[in-house]
Amino acid sequence: MRVLLIDDHALVRKGIEALLQSRGVQVVASVSSGEEGLRRARELSADIILLDVKMPGMTGIATLKELRASGVRTPVVMLTMSQEDADLSAALRAGAQGYLLKDIEPEELVPALEAVLRGDNVVAHEMVGTLARLVGSEAGPGEQTRRPAAPFADLTPRELEILKCVAAGSSNKMIARALEISDGTVKLHVKAILRKLGMRSRVEAAVAAVEQGLGKSRRAGSA
To answer: In degrees, to the nearest 5, what angle opens at C-alpha 8 toward C-alphas 1 and 70?
Structure first.
């Protein structure tokens, strides 16, 4: 995997670059501005672009819009500290394939990028509730009531318990600690949940769970 990293904070760039390289990911360029990022994106054949949201001058959202306007179709994942509804909405509308927070568990970053390369959209666990609200607010009159309920009745009590944790924004590690089971067991349960619900990603399942009232997401700024 070849990654182009765009972030105005040098220390953050160095940390992310070291993390990715330690996991066998090649960082083809690490730049500090949207303008430089645009130039490098056109020059390099990166597989994925990691882009900060809050940058001086050309913001991450403006950079993303310019990338798409100029014909760059490389998948873009926003990596940010912002948990603002408006930033998530603007990023997805501008064509981002992912929205992750910088406090993501180190072992979760590369799998999230791999999921994007497989065609999935990834959103930070903490932002799932926001995403569900955005989906609901954009639905047309009566559309929410017509949306068929996911087949939650097919889930076992343990799978429902884990799905509620996912909808609440918990990572696999957090779920494992809370339920006193192994990370591997949580992963197996999540795979079974996705299979039964006919969904491709935990984000999609979490949004469906929130829409059906199975979980309450953590609000921005909460622990």
So the answer is: 60
DSSP class per residue in 59-95: -HHHHHHHHHHTT----EEEEES---HHHHHHHHHHT
Identity of the amino acid at 25:
V
Chain centroid to Cα 188, Å, comes to: 20
Hey, what CATH class is 2-123 in?
A: alpha beta
Q: What was the pLDDT predicted at 220?
A: 31
What is the reported pTM? Answer: 0.72
pLDDT at 129: 76
Those residues whose C-beta lies under 8 Å from the C-beta of residue 34, and which sit 6 or more positions away, are: 6, 55, 57, 58, 59, 60, 62, 63, 66
Integer Cα distance of 180 and 177 in angstroms: 5
The per-residue pLDDT for 150 is: 60
- What pLDDT is recorded for position 210? 75
Mean pLDDT of residues grouped by 10 in the chain (223 residues)?
96 94 95 96 94 95 94 94 90 90 90 87 82 63 48 87 82 86 89 86 78 54 28
Cα(210)–Cα(217) distance, integer angstroms = 8
| CATH number belonging to the domain at 133-211, selected among 2.40.50.140, 1.20.1260.110, 1.10.10.60, 1.10.10.10 | 1.10.10.10
Burial of 184 (0-12, 13-18, 19+ CB in 10 A): exposed
**Domain limits, the chain:** 2-123, 133-211
Quick check: 127 and 112 in contact, CB under 8 A?
no
